[in-house]
């Protein structure tokens, strides 16, 4: 736990972030605001860095919607879902000028290049405990594979190594934010791939 740290410092320096809060405390609103702010900074202002550090392509995913698709496609990975995901049941594209496959490949390329900020909203909102553990495992595998330091350290390695070898604002690489209710998160926290 760190005291006296604002969101700019956290976003600039931490690769793996979990935002916990009570229902209605603004976790989803903050996630949506951050995605809008970063997209606007990149698209309208043409900037490649902000007060939050190096600019990454923001990807916002509702875990509940991923869980619904997973019922129909049990072998689907989070990586393969990216770009085909929806927000509140609606496609993330405003028009038909780009295909979902093209978008999916483009976002996956940003992830492969270490230029993405992946926000997983509502980790706790999976009602069935068996499905919750499967989703936790899928998220942990995604983080282990795609959200590492440039030297290959993951969120589940020794935290002292993370502090020594990871300067997110200089090294780049993917970043992840996971939101959850406090109680729901502690019932099934991220612990690392098994």
From TrEMBL:
<dbReference type="Pfam" id="PF05729">
    <property type="entry name" value="NACHT"/>
</dbReference>
<dbReference type="InterPro" id="IPR007111">
    <property type="entry name" value="NACHT_NTPase"/>
</dbReference>
<protein>
    <recommendedName>
        <fullName>NACHT domain-containing protein</fullName>
    </recommendedName>
</protein>
<dbReference type="InterPro" id="IPR027417">
    <property type="entry name" value="P-loop_NTPase"/>
</dbReference>
<feature type="domain" description="NACHT">
    <location>
        <begin position="15"/>
        <end position="126"/>
    </location>
</feature>
